[in-house]
Amino acid sequence: MPDIATVVTYNGIWLLAPVMVWNILLAAKLPAAFSRDVFWHEVPSIISIPENTLRIALFALPGVTVFEPGAGLLVYGLGLVAYFASWLALIHRPESRWSRHALGFLAPAYTPSLWLAGVALSTTSYVGHEPWVRWAFVALSAGFLSFHVAHTTLIFRRESRVPPASRTEI
Prior knowledge:
It is a single chain. By secondary structure, this protein is mainly alpha-helical. It has one domain (4-163). 65% of the residues lie in helices and 4% in strands. The chain is built from ten helices and two strands; from the N terminus they run ααααβαααααβα. It has helices at residues 4-9, 17-26, 36-39, 45-60, 71-92, 97-100, 102-105, 107-110, 112-122, 131-160; strands spanning 65-67, 123-125. Strands 1-2 form a two-stranded antiparallel ribbon. Helix 4 runs antiparallel to helix 10.
């Protein structure tokens, strides 16, 4: 088992910190469709409950892992760039063709697959290097992303029927 300094310094939870900080600081700047009141309005529990349960499990698992330098961190970094860019496009150009198209609107929901893959490739368990930890993370990621993309697709379909003049900005 690694020493406590290694466990704290290389804890897998650090890989989630940039995403959490980004989300906290910029969520309010996204178009109104992504606001809590709109995004979670009338989402069926068959989607919202598994999405949130899997999100909690997914974000908890890295707390019991350590990350190692390597190709996984490159995938993680590139994934962060794609994820952040997807937000910036929606924030700065909400009425652009990209942002109004499903591919652009859904980008914040599907681009996490890239940085989550980087986390999976970079982290191992504290004891041993049990492969089940990586596969558990991949399974949680796939489950969460399935529900998260389904949820965002529902919002896109609902909001794309609303004329631009009647959309409210946050």
